[in-house]
Each structure stands twice: as structure tokens, then as C-alpha cells.
Write a structure and sequence with these properties.
Distance between the termini: 41 Å
Largest sheet: 7 strands, mixed
Shape: elongated
Order of helices and strands: EHHEEEHEHEHEHEE
Number of helices: 6
Radius of gyration: 19 Å
Strand content: 15-25%
């Protein structure tokens, strides 16, 4: 069976952060190796990998002024931008891996971080307590979801694959999944143990997570590395977890 693996990069990084913590997920080589290994686990020994598609945004590289401190910020020199460049370079080196890049647009304003906003609303802090690191510049990703949808439609209409594995966690993919299934594609969702809404089950052919489960010590994938680029053991069934939902994610945060 020819299989394509599609990875929503913003979601993927959020889940890796939840599973492995911040330190390991700042390592671009580890992240790229983990993405490749997870894809191979889905393929197993019986199926054939058509291609891995990784969707992300190019880093934001303009300059802005922090409204709290007045300091100028060159976003091209931030750790986030450097990490994205390194990650994209690592992914380009992977066999049968295609990097699909959207772009970031300015929301036009600075936002207060959620924990500080809660504290402010609870009157635990005042406006005068807000520091320059308590805010972030609002950025929105564009074209990522559209590229995922276009690729799913293209794979389905051209009969290039028999199966699509999508690593994602929201309902944006539903129209494309419906189209693929009507064309006879076996459509599998991997939410990486993220608690998806039950309504999504009617739009997929299976639910499968092949990464370490942060909520269960006895999960079969907890006993070996996720960045070893070794072959997986085929389809593992409909693993499902009630992991706490992560906050709504953007491709990049500054």
C-alpha cells in the first residue's frame, strides 16, 4: 500500500513540547528525526512510503518595537527564527520529505500572554506590573491549511497513494478528508494522543498515535527513542487518550 504522511508542523511542535519538554524540542535535529521516525512507524514493513509532507511557515524576520520597554527587536535574530531555519534545513536533508511553507502575517498588535492576562483580570497584578517579556507580537499563519487541503486533493484525484496519514489535531482537515475518502483513500488521523472531538471520528477511517503517550507509562512506544529513524511495526490500532487539550496554536510564537 502506497502511503503519504502529512504533518501539520505547528501542531506537531506543540505536541512534542507537551511530551518531551522545552529543552529537547529546541533541538532542530531531534525534531526532524522524530518527525521522520514517526512517519516510518506508520508505514511499517508492509506499506510503501510515497512521501512525507511537512507544513510550516517561514520565520518572521522584520523589526518591531516593544511597547513596554521601547526596545527594538530584530525578529530575524530571535531563537525562534534561528530554530525554524535550522529545522527546515534538517527536514530538507531527509529522504522522501517535502517541505511545504506558508508565511506569517502581522496581526498588527502586541498581545498580553495568557497567564498574565488571567492574573490581571483576577486583580492579582496591575497594569504597572506588566514587563516587556509579558507580551508577544501577534502573528497569523497563512496558506498552511490550504496547502494541506490541496495536497490531499491532488493525492486523491491523481491516485498517487492508497492511504494518507495526517498528523494534526483540529477539524480544518475535514473537507479534504471527506474528498479523499470518496476517492477510495484510507484516511488515518494521528493526533499524537491529543484529545480530538468525537465528531471527527465520522470523517476518518482510523485513529492511530505512534509516539510516546505522556499519560500512560505502559504505552508500547514509551520504551524506545522517537528520534532513532528506525522502522516501525505497522498499524497499532486506534490508540486514544484523554490528554488535556493544548491551547490554540499558531505556527510560531514570539
Amino acid at each position: 500500500m502506497s502511503t503519504a504522511v502529512l504533518i501539520d508542523g505547528g501542531f506537531f511542535l506543540k505536541r512534542l513540547h507537551s511530551i518531551y519538554g522545552a529543552q529537547r524540542t529546541r533541538d532542530a535535529e531531534f525534531v526532524a528525526n522524530t518527525a521522520f521516525t514517526i512517519a516510518l512507524r506508520h508505514i511499517g514493513k508492509e506499506n510503501q512510503l510515497y512521501r512525507i509532507f511537512y507544513y510550516d511557515c517561514s520565520p518572521y524576520e522584520k523589526k518591531q518595537e516593544n511597547p513596554i520597554s521601547g526596545a527594538g527587536i530584530d525578529f530575524s535574530n530571535t531563537p525562534q527564527a534561528q530554530f525554524r531555519r535550522e529545522l527546515h534545513n534538517e527536514l530538507k536533508k531527509k529522504r522522501k520529505t517535502a517541505l511545504r511553507l506558508g508565511y506569517l502575517v502581522e496581526g498588527g498588535r502586541w498581545q498580553l500572554k495568557p497567564d498574565k492576562l488571567k492574573a490581571l483580570l483576577r486583580k492579582e497584578i496591575t497594569v504597572d506590573d506588566i514587563q516587556e517579556n509579558d507580551i508577544y507580537f501577534d502573528l497569523k499563519q497563512k496558506w498552511v491549511d490550504i496547502k494541506i487541503g490541496i495536497d490531499i486533493a491532488s493525492l486523491a484525484y491523481k491516485k498517487q497513494v492508497n492511504q494518507i496519514i495526517l498528523i494534526a489535531g483540529d477539524s480544518d482537515f475535514v473537507p479534504a478528508a471527506k474528498l479523499a475518502r470518496r476517492e477510495g483513500i484510507d484516511f488515518i488521523l494521528d493526533p499524537m494522543w491529543y484529545d480530538i472531538h468525537e465528531s471527527l471520528f465520522e470523517h476518518i477511517d482510523g485513529l492511530q498515535s505512534v509516539v510516546k503517550n505522556p499519560d500512560r507509562a505502559d504505552n508500547e512506544y514509551n520504551n524506545y527513542s522517537d528520534d532513532d529513524s528506525s522502522e516501525g511495526n505497522g498499524y497499532r490500532g486506534n490508540g486514544y487518550s484523554s490528554s488535556r487539550r493544548p491551547s490554540r496554536y499558531h505556527s510560531q510564537e514570539y
